[in-house]
Amino acid sequence: MNLGNMAIIGAVLLLMLRSLSYGQTLSSAVASISTYSPFLDQINELTAEYLKHEVQSGEEMPTSPVPVTLKDVSFSYSGRDSTLKDVSFQIEGTDLVGIIGPSGSGKSTIAQLVLGLREPTEGCIHVGGTPLPRVDRSWWCRNTAFVPQEPKLITGTIADNIRFFRDGIEDEDIERVANDVNLLDAINALPRGIDTHIGPKGTELSGGQRQRISIARALVTRPRLIVMDEPTSSLDAASEAVVIESLESLKGQTAILLIAHRMSTIAICDKIVVVEHGRVTAVGDHKSLVSTNPYYKNAVRGI
Ligand code: ADP
């Protein structure tokens, strides 16, 4: 996993922890979680890094986080040339929007901007008609979710992993969301159902099952917008197929921004944004891009 991916996972865990309602301070919450998983130790530093540049909260609460509208968005990491230049596209309603492009073209940076983890250097992002910087951060965190490239599970039960330290999530919610990601039958076949321990000393899950738990964790609070960063890239073909099936079954329920490099994953999107060298070079559906966009055409051929 590259540093960018680690950073975004750290930042999003931070956002999740911010929505904890049982009065724990951020640092004690991170410290207690660290005892569950060495992985979280690694991201402590990165979350601290994000805290230094934390985006200020506004006070507005739009009726919905969608549509998300990026208008002429440019972004530069400090001291570097533009990573993104004049990026414009929209995510509406319950669209499944894919982003595809070569490695280093700026896809993860777009995900971070859409999540409000970074601010555009130029241009603006509106969510539900409101400029993102004016939106209340806690509201935003409650209405959006992130699924990272590699599922990061904690040692505990399936329910612990889906609930992920947030209160107000009942067992019925966990079963509902497990069903939404086509995992309920497999969970019910385990001796202790959602109370089955997973992890080093518990039941071993397949890569596809682990990623579907990660998606269930994001979905359980019923976010209206989910950002997924290459959620199938670490999976073998069989696991990828079941995760794609789960993603397809989510269509029409919530807006999804899906960064993907595999054509099998991108092909299920309603709209695809092609990003090359920090610029959007095409927006369209699979059929139109195959005939009009050279990068996309080559990607389909596997060149
Ligand atoms: P992609 O997701 O398409 O692979 P990224 O958005 O991760 O692209 O990266 C786009 C460019 O920004 C790359 O050149 C990358 O090296 C650079 N970059 C990514 N994260 C950082 C960072 N935290 N600091 C400086 N440069 C970064």
Characterization of the model:
This protein is of the alpha/beta class. The chain is built from 13 helices and twelve strands. The strands form three sheets. It has a six-stranded mixed β-sheet with strand order 6-9-10-3-11-12, sandwiched between helices. Strand 4 and strand 5 form a beta hairpin. Helix 9 runs parallel beside helix 10 (237-250). The chain is globular. The two termini are 24 Å apart. Residues 1-6, 18-29 and 34-39 have low confidence and may be disordered. The site of adenosine-5'-diphosphate has 13 residues, from helix 1 and helix 4. Adenosine-5'-diphosphate is lined by residues 4, 7, 77, 80, 83, 101, 103-109.
Short synopsis of the structure:
This protein has 303 residues and is of the alpha/beta class. It is 40% helix and 20% strand.
Q: Distance between termini? A: 24 Å
Mean pLDDT: 83
What general form does the structure show?
Answer: globular
State the oligomer: single chain
Strand neighbour order, sheet with most strands: 6-9-10-3-11-12
Helix run count: 13
The SS-based structural class is alpha/beta
Quote the beta fraction: 15-25%
Order of helices and strands: HHHEEEHEEHEEHHHEHEHEHEEHH
Report the count of strand segments: 12
Radius of gyration: 19 Å
Low-confidence runs (pLDDT<50, min 5 residues)? 1-6, 18-29, 34-39
- The helix fraction, in percent, is 40-55%
Biggest beta-sheet profile = 6 strands, mixed
Bound molecules: adenosine-5'-diphosphate
